[in-house]
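pipeline/complex-builder :: batch 7 item 3
reading input block
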Amino acid sequence: MAKTGLTGSRIRDRRVMMGLRQADLARQAGISASYLNLIEHNRRRIGGKLLLDIAAVLGAEPAHLTEGAEAALVATLRDAASASPGAGAEAETADEFAGRFPGWARLLADQQVRIGRLEQAVEALTDRLAHDPLLAASLHEVLSTVTAIHSASSILVETKQIEPEWRDRFHRNIHEDSARLAEGAQRLVNELDAGQRKEVSLNSPQDELDAFLDKAGHSFAELEGAAVAEDDIEAALAGQSFDTSAAQALARDRLTRLARDAATLPQDRLVTALEAARKAQREAEAPDPTALAADLGVSPALVMRRLIALPQDVAERLLPAAPGLVIADASGTLLYRKEAQGFSLPRYGAACPLWPLFAALSRPVFPIRQAIQLAGRNEGAFLTYAVAEPDHPVRPGADPGLRAHMLIWPQDRLETGSQRVGLTCRICPRVNCLSRREPSIMAREG
Amino acid sequence: MERTVLVIEDEPNIIEAISFILSRDGWRVVTHSNGVDAVDAVASRRPDLVILDVMLPGRSGFDILRDLRAEEGTAALPVLMLTARGQTQDRELAQSLGASRFMAKPFSNAEVLEAANALVAS
């Protein structure tokens, strides 16, 4: 493990706490006092035998001297450096910087976190402004009312001789429109405020379905079992109030599909296969749904759907991270969304066409394994598995109703050969992307 | 010769203001407030200029413009598009569909008057 320069600060703190003089610690550790001084001021890196010796003198575990909250600080500083490559910040000396200038380092790190939050808010709002039909209607109403007031007041001011009848009419119009403007502005503020709070308004039956599934963690104990009856589906829906009957119908259809999946691949079979896979591979490795599917004798898409439906306690025990899943039909419309940490799925705009999800549509039934790097704020690394399968039994001459699935595993590090993709064009910083549909409003990459 | 403008807009107070401004300038103003039969309204009123809102009940102003440009009789008719969304993509779409001018709300009375007179000489 790499030792950070902050280790020096911890050595100094502990020495002072013990009432030990710098010269005494240096002597006992077999180094000069001046060299220890450099270490304590984070001017020299420390590791190996010397770290062990100093830790022994201080009566501390070496790991306690090299780990701590400052590690997160240094990681954030490195994130800040990589987010602005043009600035030329020396990422490799972030630990030294944090050690020598802890106040400035914390300020810079706080700013980096704040920028991230603001960019996230901008992304969400921009996505809404561009694609949310309710918000667009509210904006249109406010701007139209402003236009009406502006025009009428201009007429009253600029027209030297205006008939009393017209004057009264425009006065009345301004009065009415100003009341409408107040209401419209308040409505607009409420809608934008909802976006800021991330309690986004549910505009469509699909939105309601997504919210329902997210709330349940995409896992329904009532639907696990070989013989799920209609009553079980109603039980899973019980207590849910949907704004529209269309949303309720979508939810019922989704739960029926989940129950069918559970009957075809019972949870205990999947758990057994996952446990066997864990023994055969390194613990932290993301399970390969296509290998699991081959072992279980089922389709990869089914395994993907079942993986994300595991109860939270089972998932935490058997999976390296909570996976995301997105399902699209042949038009590219996203029908099912479960987000993975760091991979937010576009709510209104169309997704990035470079996602393996869409490549899968061009070669049905063939699974694709593709590591990806998300362009943008976090530059997250993910491993994806994608496959497109018919949604219903294939009949001669009939459309197979392809459903493309993409399972998304968050990864700690970037895999060689990763494909760089975005979320949606409007908030993607990539330049010279041949697949771009519209200009980005985010800062572009240099 | 009197020039006729057809204002296709669903906001009554905007219609009233535009009507006032243009009629004072010598225009004959006729109005229509929904998108569904707007193309028929243009055919029957035979205006010299159309002022067309983008967001209309029943049908988008872009769809209406597309139909007007596809008809021989209205292919060259001056159309001033009004929209509450001044976004580049709306402007580009309006231009690609053949809008003669594009104006984002809120606009001023003088801008409307200037555009109308520039599109149809008296």
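note: The longest strand of chain A covers residues 381-390.
queue -> next item
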